[in-house]
Design a protein that fits this description.
Helix content: 25-40%
CATH topology: Ubiquitin-like (UB roll)
Largest sheet: 5 strands, mixed
Shape: globular
CATH architecture: Roll
Radius of gyration: 12 Å
CATH superfamily: Beta-grasp domain
Order of helices and strands: EHEHHEEE
CATH class: Alpha Beta
Strand order of the largest sheet: 2-1-5-3-4
Strand content: 15-25%
Distance between the termini: 31 Å
Protein backbone atom coordinates (compact mmCIF):
# COMPACT_ATOMS: atom_id res chain seq x y z
CA UNK A 1 0.00 0.00 0.00
CA UNK A 2 1.13 3.57 -0.62
CA UNK A 3 0.98 6.15 2.14
CA UNK A 4 2.19 9.72 1.64
CA UNK A 5 4.48 10.74 4.49
CA UNK A 6 5.17 14.40 5.24
CA UNK A 7 7.88 15.42 7.70
CA UNK A 8 7.93 18.72 9.63
CA UNK A 9 10.07 20.37 12.29
CA UNK A 10 12.86 18.38 13.89
CA UNK A 11 12.13 15.10 12.02
CA UNK A 12 12.36 16.96 8.72
CA UNK A 13 15.60 18.66 9.67
CA UNK A 14 17.34 15.68 11.27
CA UNK A 15 16.24 13.06 8.71
CA UNK A 16 16.80 15.49 5.82
CA UNK A 17 13.51 14.56 4.15
CA UNK A 18 10.30 16.51 3.62
CA UNK A 19 8.10 13.85 2.03
CA UNK A 20 8.02 10.37 0.57
CA UNK A 21 5.52 7.80 -0.64
CA UNK A 22 7.00 4.43 0.30
CA UNK A 23 5.50 1.06 -0.53
CA UNK A 24 4.27 0.05 2.93
CA UNK A 25 3.73 -3.65 3.69
CA UNK A 26 0.05 -4.65 3.67
CA UNK A 27 0.32 -6.02 7.22
CA UNK A 28 0.77 -2.49 8.61
CA UNK A 29 -2.66 -1.66 10.04
CA UNK A 30 -2.16 1.27 12.44
CA UNK A 31 -0.25 4.50 12.71
CA UNK A 32 1.86 2.99 15.51
CA UNK A 33 2.79 0.02 13.33
CA UNK A 34 3.74 2.42 10.52
CA UNK A 35 6.08 4.32 12.85
CA UNK A 36 7.57 1.02 14.08
CA UNK A 37 8.19 0.04 10.46
CA UNK A 38 9.92 3.37 9.75
CA UNK A 39 12.08 2.98 12.89
CA UNK A 40 13.41 -0.28 11.45
CA UNK A 41 15.45 1.84 9.04
CA UNK A 42 17.77 2.24 12.02
CA UNK A 43 20.12 5.02 13.07
CA UNK A 44 18.54 8.46 13.16
CA UNK A 45 15.18 6.98 12.12
CA UNK A 46 14.99 4.98 15.34
CA UNK A 47 16.02 7.98 17.42
CA UNK A 48 13.98 10.73 15.73
CA UNK A 49 10.75 8.73 15.40
CA UNK A 50 10.71 7.51 19.00
CA UNK A 51 7.18 7.64 20.46
CA UNK A 52 7.96 10.51 22.84
CA UNK A 53 9.59 12.59 20.08
CA UNK A 54 6.89 12.79 17.41
CA UNK A 55 3.21 13.48 16.91
CA UNK A 56 1.22 12.51 13.83
CA UNK A 57 -1.73 13.72 11.85
CA UNK A 58 -3.61 11.24 9.69
CA UNK A 59 -5.36 12.90 6.75
CA UNK A 60 -4.89 16.28 8.47
CA UNK A 61 -6.36 15.21 11.83
CA UNK A 62 -4.28 14.63 14.95
CA UNK A 63 -4.22 10.89 15.56
CA UNK A 64 -3.10 8.36 18.13
CA UNK A 65 -0.95 5.29 17.43
CA UNK A 66 -3.99 3.00 17.27
CA UNK A 67 -5.55 4.93 14.35
CA UNK A 68 -6.00 2.69 11.29
CA UNK A 69 -4.00 3.49 8.16
CA UNK A 70 -5.13 2.66 4.64
CA UNK A 71 -3.81 2.85 1.11
CA UNK A 72 -3.76 6.46 -0.08
CA UNK A 73 -3.66 8.02 3.40
CA UNK A 74 -1.51 11.05 4.20
CA UNK A 75 0.51 11.00 7.42
CA UNK A 76 2.24 14.10 8.74
CA UNK A 77 5.05 13.47 11.24
CA UNK A 78 6.28 16.37 13.36
CA UNK A 79 7.89 17.22 16.67
CA UNK A 80 5.55 17.76 19.65
CA UNK A 81 6.32 21.48 19.72
CA UNK A 82 6.31 23.12 16.28
CA UNK A 83 6.40 26.82 15.66
CA UNK A 84 3.94 28.27 13.29
Amino acid sequence: MNIKLLYFGRPRERLNISSETPEVPDNIATLGELLDWLRQRGGLWTQELAENRVRCALNQEMSKPDAPVRDGDEVAIFSPISGG
